[in-house]
Every structure is written in C-alpha cells, then in structure tokens.
Amino acid sequence: MPPGFYPPPPSAQNFSAAYNFGIAAIVAPVGNQLGISTEQIAVASMVGQAWRLASPVIPALYLLCERCEMNFVDYQKLFFKLTWPILFIYLAMHTLTGAMPF
After folding, report:
1. DSSP state, residue 6
2. Membrane spanning segments where (predicted)?
3. Nearest to 80 by CA among 56, 62, 99, 57
4. What is the predicted pLDDT for the residue at 1?
C-alpha cells in the first residue's frame, strides 16, 4: 500500500530502503569504531524522520505545493513550525522507554 493511504504514525516507520540497506550498512560499522553503538545510530535515524518530508529532494512535495497553490518555502516554514512537537514526542518516548542511550 502506498504511504499516502495510511496515517502518519505508520508512515513515520516507513524508512527508505536505500538508507536501511545502503547507507546504514556503512554507517553502523564506522560508528561502532568511533564508540557509537548500533542502537544509538538507529535511534538517531528515527528521531531524524520527523523532518524527512521537508526535504527538497522529494519530487512529490513540489507537486503537493503546486496542487495546494503554496510556495515550497512557505510549505517548509509551516512544516517546521508544526513538526517541532513531533520531535519532542519522539525524544520523550525514546527517553521514557529507555531507547535513548545517554
């Protein structure tokens, strides 16, 4: 099912396959050599997902902005303003569940 057909919480878990199977395989061993655990790398990648849909490299966002008659910069400003609570929810939940390694 395309990500647009289900609500945001499940889509937040829908990581890019290129990251999981490409970059993550390289980042994890390098991070381990620097003293960063694989769990810390995974948590950091999840926290960063709050802002993934503001990236200017996602072509569908330009179509969305055109259809909504909104400038892409205005979209990003609104997106960042509304995404801060999501970041704090991620951080709070990771801390409460013990997934946030300090």
Report:
1. S
2. 78-96
3. 56
4. 42
